[in-house]
Write a structure and sequence with these properties.
This protein has seven helices and eight strands. It is α/β, with parallel strands linked by helices. The site of zinc ion (ZN) has 5 residues, from loops.
Length: about 220
């Protein structure tokens, strides 16, 4: 074999091995899939205050999160519902698991008999051991949601829930209290809903970077 032929063979082999990928090809790393769940829906309104339903605020915040993810080439979203329909918790879990989501974040609004109570909480299922990454996901969302909105921080907590069914890190974010007048006004405000969405997504991104699923160099907020 002549030298020229050897060189051609080497180049062809390298090309087959993918050494000469264009920048566009390198950029097409599969996005990380995240499952975003709007709590309640359909006949289940969640918390109710007059004619204000938790399910609608949850869906509005999820729509903002989806818009942010759509603008983010490194992320893809699975929404468990985008219509005002009832979805069983087992089906919410199945959509996330079968869609290969890396994590699951459920969005809720709280209510309480004492109208003076306000603020955000992130909930983790009480069967999660201390080393379960759900806690790290919860803390990342808590930190970034508070930084983005200045919402009162009521902390990361645990309770019994359906979230134990998920094999991936999973949390439920209670973004505020419908029963508190000031917070209710904010929760109904489109700009505030967008801020909540940004804070939650920044937390998700921070968790994925710390977990090695996203690159550090990536923009935390695409806007
Ligand atoms: Zn709820």
């Amino acid at each position: 074999m002549g030298l020229a032929l050897v060189a051609i063979v080497v180049v062809v082999c390298l090309a087959i091995a993918g050494v000469f990928r264009s920048p566009e090809e390198i950029a097409t790393i599969p996005p990380v899939i995240v499952a975003i769940d709007a709590g309640h829906g359909g006949a289940d309104p969640g918390a109710v205050f007059g004619e204000i339903y938790e399910k609608d605020i949850n869906a509005a915040i999820v729509a903002h999160i989806e818009a942010l993810i759509e603008a983010d080439p490194e992320l893809d979203a699975i929404l468990t519902r985008w219509l005002d329909i009832a979805v069983a918790n087992v089906d919410r879990v199945a959509m996330a698991e079968e869609g290969n989501a890396s994590l699951y974040v459920s969005i809720h609004v709280n209510a309480f008999s004492d109208a003076s109570v306000y603020g955000m909480e992130v909930w983790v299922d009480d069967t999660r051991t201390p080393d379960d990454p759900s806690w790290a996901l919860a803390r990342a969302i808590q930190e970034h949601l508070v930084a983005e909105t200045a919402v009162r921080d009521r902390g990361v907590r645990s309770q019994e829930s359906y979230l134990h069914r998920l094999t991936v890190p999973s949390v439920s974010v209670e973004v505020g209290y419908l029963t508190n007048a000031e917070e209710r006004a904010l929760l109904l405000d489109d700009t505030y809903q967008r801020q909540v969405a940004t804070g939650i997504l920044n937390g998700i991104r921070a968790f994925l970077v710390a977990d090695g699923q996203l690159s550090e160099s990536a923009q935390e907020n695409p806007f």
